[in-house]
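Weekly puzzle thread! Below is a chain. First person to post its structure in token form gets bragging rights.
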Amino acid sequence: MIKNKKQIDEIISKFIGKKGSLIPLMQEIQNIERYLSIDTMRYLSEKSGVKLAEIYGVATFYTMFKLKPQGKHIVRICKGTACHVSGANSIARSLKQELNLKDNEDTTKDGLFTIMEVACLGCCSLAPVIMIDDNTYGKLTPDSVVDILKKYN
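Winning reply:
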């Protein structure tokens, strides 16, 4: 089921017929839906005339596209070398414990948070580092990340 059909129709009409517009079109739709469901991709295919296989191929090739619901807040945990040696694993464990996430889960049941491990956030002097949405937090401890999360509840 597609929640924001009217908004998606407006986005599609903006891009329809423009060569090379599939990726920005999919990005705008994902910004509204927070991910690209198979129903949304089917609808996009029907409305745009682009084959579903091509849309799905783009969605699975580029890591910026998500195929399952994402949380309202995205928590990126840096796993670069500086962060790793400064305790990134204990930060990740603390976050997962505080959010009641099991080993294979990355999004909270209430849809508020999604945790992602990233190769590097480019803030090595602040290691260990997380980003929540567009906000960067560094020099973290397992306890300090719990307090940071409370700002987003």
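Puzzle host: Confirmed. Bonus trivia for everyone else. The chain has a mean pLDDT of 94.
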